[in-house]
Design brief:
Helices cover 8% and strands 55% of the residues. It contains 2 helices and 26 strands. The chain is mainly beta and 387 residues long. Bound molecules: 2-acetamido-2-deoxy-beta-D-glucopyranose (4 copies). The site of one 2-acetamido-2-deoxy-beta-D-glucopyranose (NAG) has 5 residues, from β14.
Length: 387
């Protein structure tokens, strides 16, 4: 065999091995939005075209990829549903533009999909800030009933509601997500996670007018690391206790920076009679820069109208804060307001060093019905029930 033939043979073998390892993903079938008659420029609605291209890609028996070229396409709300026959990639290198006034619900929803990859470096433009008062009910992107998936290298901007919602999503990674909306745009949460298991969020920047990340009931095994948050309302768990038996368990937040946010690390519950739990929460290596409430538990959460005068029945326990450094814009850097009927237990503070940015004295702690352990540096001075 001559040299050239042996080279060809070797590369064929390599391709074959690669196909075996990746279970056939070497033969990705491309579906291009333009070939379906999409009209660029941002005026003509491309929602029907997008759904048609998606359905074809989804039905393809094998790995498929739906490609959006580096142009701007206007799209009315769509649901892109599975189950699909193989792994599917939604590859957006351009800009998808939402309608100016979004009704409640999602703009682009991915539903019932296993092995979805959402990537391409392109943008999703929500054309916000919201023009309607019920913006809390709408969202740009949502993943629901999605498993074993990944969203990576995408930009979400100017949402009219939440930027990205994960509902009933399992074993899914979010990496290099860039979210930006103005600080004054109301109810524009960055990422909201509910009823989901095994979610990791890494290397992402989130600037919005509400929570950077909100972890809601039914979520467990959530890891957040390398996230820059600000402006915004910080990284929140809750509000819990809105209905009976709400739980959040096993959350780790590490190596994150919060800059100029209203809250830093927050757990909030309503003062209702519904029992629930927030447990096994780890916050590690967090830098706060001029955050108004760096560490805050609020068990009397009430965001509008008539809230209960009772006490919260949601138990907050086994929460560790370790290596939390930086500055606070308010004097109360550690603010643990727990419930009289259901106090917070086993809260650990290890190496806390949060200075007050103001002139009138030093940072302080203020706790009600919270107890636990402290170790290492403690600024502010811990509350009395911590030893
Ligand atoms: C996610 O996992 C839970 C178990 O933790 C399971 O009950 C649920 O059906 C899974 N969801 C999906 C969409 O597969
Ligand atoms: C937690 O999630 C990861 C994926 O992010 C998964 O590999 C692991 O098995 C999950 N652990 C539990 C206890 O669910
Ligand atoms: C947080 O800020 C520190 C110091 O400014 C920097 O070294 C680190 O890379 C930042 N972390 C992230 C996730 O960007
Ligand atoms: C501490 O919190 C309590 C409410 O639990 C409040 O009444 C009190 O004024 C706070 N202390 C300071 C110094 O703000």
């Amino acid at each position: 065999m001559d040299f050239k033939a042996s080279l060809t043979k070797n590369s064929l073998i390599l391709v074959l091995i690669f196909c075996l390892i990746t279970k056939g993903q070497c033969q990705v079938k491309f579906f291009t939005l333009e070939n379906y008659g999409a009209v660029k420029g941002g005026e003509v609605d491309n929602s029907k075209v997008l759904v048609k291209a998606w359905n074809d890609a989804c039905k393809w028996k094998g790995a498929s990829r739906l490609d959006i070229s580096s142009e701007t396409y206007f799209v009315n709300p769509v649901i892109l549903s599975g189950p699909c026959s193989g792994p599917i990639e939604f590859h957006n290198s351009g800009t998808l533009k939402a309608p100016l006034s979004l009704k409640p619900g999602s703009w682009i929803e991915f539903r019932h999909i296993n092995r979805l990859t959402l990537t391409g470096g392109g943008s999703f433009d929500g054309q916000g800030p919201p023009k309607q008062p019920n913006s809390r009910l709408s969202s740009m992107l949502s993943l629901s009933f999605v498993t074993n998936s990944k969203a990576e290298n995408i930009k979400l901007r100017n949402s009219q509601g939440t930027h990205l919602i994960l509902f009933a999503v399992n074993n899914t990674e979010l990496n290099e997500i860039r979210i930006s909306s103005p600080e004054e745009s109301h109810n524009t949460d960055g990422i909201k996670i509910g009823a989901s298991n095994g979610i990791t969020i890494t290397n992402s920047n989130i600037a919005s007018g509400d929570d950077c990340i909100a972890i809601l009931t039914g979520s467990k095994n959530i890891t957040i690391s390398g996230v820059n948050c600000g402006p915004g309302h910080g990284i929140s768990i809750g509000s819990m206790g809105h209905s009976p038996n709400e739980h959040v368990d096993h959350v780790t937040v590490k190596h994150c920076n919060l800059s100029g946010t209203t809250n830093g690390l927050r757990i909030k519950t309503w003062a209702t009679d519904y029992p629930g739990t927030v447990s096994n929460i780890q916050y590690q290596e967090i830098i706060m820069d001029n955050v108004y409430n760096p560490i805050i538990f609020d068990q009397h959460y009430c965001d509008a109208g008539s809230c209960g005068q009772g006490t919260s029945k949601v138990e907050i326990q086994d929460v560790t804060f370790s290596n939390i450094h930086g500055t606070s814009r308010s004097k109360i850097a550690v603010n643990l307001q727990c419930s009289r009927s259901t106090p917070c237990n086993r809260i650990e503070l290890e190496d806390i060093n949060i200075k007050y940015n103001g002139e009138d004295g030093t940072s302080i702690s203020n706790c009600s019905y919270a107890s636990g352990k402290v170790s290492g540096v403690q600024l502010p001075k811990p509350c009395p029930l911590f030893s």
